[in-house]
Design a protein that fits this description.
With 403 residues, the protein is of the alpha/beta class. 45% of the residues lie in helices and 21% in strands. The protein folds into 3 domains: 208 residues, Isopropylmalate Dehydrogenase; 127 residues, Isopropylmalate Dehydrogenase (3-Layer(aba) Sandwich), CATH 3.40.718; 38 residues, no CATH class. A 10-stranded mixed sheet has the order 4-2-5-16-15-6-7-14-12-13, sandwiched between helices. The longest helix has 24 residues. The protein is globular. The site of NADP nicotinamide-adenine-dinucleotide phosphate has 17 residues, from helix 10.
């Protein structure tokens, strides 16, 4: 078979520990044999981030703005233990945080649904994609303990010094208060990312907040979504045969539990944090969850939702066998290559991405999988493969499909 040619490079962000090992295995076995890979490569491995004073992370995000599509391997976010383990100059910020700050996007988390790994909720047959707003609210709050009797107020002072005040509470004893904020700009870009991702994937979009209680704050989110939908997306949604649906968050939770899936659920920052953990664990495994950052300008970054699987890496370093699940990392590659194929109009690349995903899933559905899945599958007597064996099994299947 002749290798598939690419036009625009894909931005490749390499990473750390066990996922870095998997990344190389995926490239060697599932990408290079089939594709004449054009990649703009950035090594976000912690050592190289340290050597470049984290400039490499910034460069990789700027390259994503330039080319439009990136794929990222999981990376270490340094903490005190990593400072001494890697002898770092500085406790570098989370690469994902840095990249998100530059691209200004929304993160969509989508489970990879496989027969034999059954969701805890029986009605769920298709993925439920969580879109979490990634700025503000309780994550940027200001809190205060109130020691005694007294009045608490919110004050806004404009440039001329005019004040606008609202009473929070007249305390007759000790208590607590909290102030939070968001910006219209961030909410607008959240809304646009959600609508454009829905169009892109052909999925319905749900959005929910607590606007009946929070009549100014949450209501602003609801109004901005409604405005963007009416003015920019309604016609496109109708043409694509998908719907936008707003409902109160309590109602949404009840509906999600009775749904069959197949939609995007957009949520404010805290709601998205909590609900994405619920959805991912109910779908079976963190190792079967992809994460896609979509910027309001339409730049895409694909990655696995899990981390660098440190414990497995230490086993690997000791020469012990590992059985680490590479499905979400493979899907980062297929997702990025499919998007590249769509943007550059390379149908062979789109077909390749689809076949790669099919091969990845079919190996599992036919009973061969890594240990994490073997422990939870409903398939009888699954065959447990090690990290490399699983990728090789996907390779033989893929070769068969592409023949
Ligand atoms: P983790 O790497 O997601 O792993 C937590 C545990 O989940 C593992 O020990 C393993 O359980 C299981 N697991 C996760 N992914 C798996 C896979 N692909 N196959 C099999 N089992 C898997 O989280 P962590 O250990 O808390 O974090 C390790 C490093 O990752 C940290 O330095 C953190 O900063 C970084 N991190 C990066 C990202 C990112 O780049 N997006 C996200 C999260 C964390 P068992 O050990 O029981 O087998
Ligand atoms: Mg969380």
């Amino acid at each position: 078979m002749e290798k598939i040619k690419m036009i625009t490079p894909i931005v490749e962000m390499d990473g750390d520990e066990m996922t870095r090992i998997l990344w190389q295995l995926i490239k060697d076995n599932l990408i290079h044999p089939f594709i004449d890979l054009k990649s703009d490569y950035y090594d976000l491995g912690l050592m190289h981030r340290d050597e470049t004073n984290d400039q490499v992370t910034i460069d990789s995000a700027n390259a994503t703005k330039k080319y439009g599509v990136a794929i990222k391997c999981a990376t270490i976010t340094p903490n005190a233990a990593r400072m001494s383990e890697y002898n770092l100059h500085e406790m570098w910020k989370s690469p994902n945080g840095t990249i998100r700050a530059i691209l200004d996007g929304t993160v969509f988390r989508a489970p990879i649904v496989v027969k034999g790994i059954e969701p805890a909720v029986k009605t769920w047959k298709n993925p439920i994609v969580i879109a979490r707003h990634a700025y503000g609210d309780v994550y940027k709050d200001v809190e205060m303990a109130i020691p005694s009797v007294g009045k608490t107020e919110i004050v806004f002072t404009d440039k001329e010094g005019n004040e606008k005040r609202a009473l929070i509470h007249d305390f007759d004893n000790s208590g607590i208060i909290l102030g939070q904020h968001n910006t219209d700009k961030s909410i607008y870009s959240f809304a646009r990312s959600c609508f454009s991702y829905a169009l892109d994937t052909g999925l319905d979009l749900w959005f929910s907040t607590k606007d009946t209680i929070s009549k100014t704050y949450d209501h602003r989110f609801k109004d901005i979504f409604a405005e963007i939908y009416e003015n920019e997306y309604k016609d496109k949604f109708e043409k694509a045969g998908i719907t936008y649906f707003y409902t109160l968050i309590d109602d949404a939770v009840a509906r999600v539990m009775k749904s069959e899936g197949n939609f995007i659920w957009a949520l404010k920052n805290y709601d998205g944090d909590v609900m994405s953990d619920m959805i991912s664990s109910a779908f079976g495994s963190l190792a079967m969850m992809t994460s896609i950052l979509v910027s309001p300008e339409g730049n895409y970054e694909y990655e696995a939702a899990h981390g660098t699987v440190q414990r497995h890496y230490y086993k690997h370093l000791k020469g012990e066998e590992t059985s680490t699940n590479s499905v979400a990392s493979i899907f980062a590659w297929s997702g990025g290559l499919r998007k590249r194929g769509e943007l550059d109009n390379i149908p062979e690349l789109v077909t390749f991405a689809n076949e790669l995903e099919k091969a990845t899933i079919d190996v599992i559905e036919e009973g061969s999988m890594t240990k994490d899945l073997a422990l939870i599958t409903t398939i009888k007597n699954p065959k447990v493969l090690n990290s490399e064996e699983y990728i090789l099994a996907v390779r033989s299947k893929l070769e068969e499909y592409l023949k």
